[in-house]
Amino acid sequence: MSAKSDILFSSALMPQALRAESQIRFRCYKGISCFNACCKQADVTLTPYDILRLKRRLGLTSTVFLREHAVPFQMDGDGLPGVKLKTDDSGACLQLDGDAGCAVFSDRPTVCRYYPLAFLALREKDASHAEERYSLVKESHCKGHDEQREISVAEYREEQGCEDFDAANREWYQLILKKKSAGPSLGRPPQRSLQLFFMASYDLDTFRRFVLSENFRNTYSLPDDFYTEVEQHDEALLRFSYRFLRQVLFGERSVQEVADAWDRRVAQRKDVWDARRALEAERRLAAEDAKYAAGGDGGAS
Predict the structure, then answer these.
(1) In the prediction, which pLDDT does 11 show?
(2) Do 116 and 197 share a structural domain?
(3) Which residues of 11-28 are buried (b: 16+ CB within 10 A; e: fewer)?
(4) What is the pTM of this model?
């Protein structure tokens, strides 16, 4: 089978792809000899919904969460920004609460829920949608594979609460896969687009201010109840961010613009630049006047 594979949450290993009905042998529990070992060497890529859940759990804005609990990285050669969970100097997750384990367990990120599975997106050549597959990651420190419990991938995902997270992130996964699949044909996004991608994907509270701004309202044709919903509900805003990003990354008309909005923006920018040029001209004239005045004073003395 000729397929393009993108591992959204990767490991150093690339095992055989598993399906929902595939059986694995694994069990993790407090008291197992390796308990918390994976958290002490954490390499956790965060999804937009992960950040939403964690910032809400910690009582932080997305901006503060990103500054204090995350580190940026580049997901591809074009500089598409990603975010990882910050660790301490030893590599341990900052949310690890000693022997008690994860301090945010019910809101833990997608990668942590899936472990020891990795989530794969497989897309046939020329296919419009990716198929979801999984792989089993075996690391030397993990003793959960020695436990005598067999469970299907589907049952394990249900047990770990993966589906709610996948449902909230699925459209974002498709955006990433489409960007990777397009490759050179899409080209490197402008820096402004990369900044918008970071804000709309990860910094949801800043994105909310952007969406609720007067300039945004004057540019895009959206009903009043839309603004009420995204002002009050993070999940609604996150869903809209994916819609907005299709326009930012791929030029899709996923958000209708107000008629003549572009012409009005051009005219506004022209007015701004004209005003700036006028101010600069006045500044230069004032500087010239000051220089001549200083020269005249010098001659009189």
Answers:
(1) 41
(2) no
(3) beeeeebbeeebebebeb
(4) 0.81
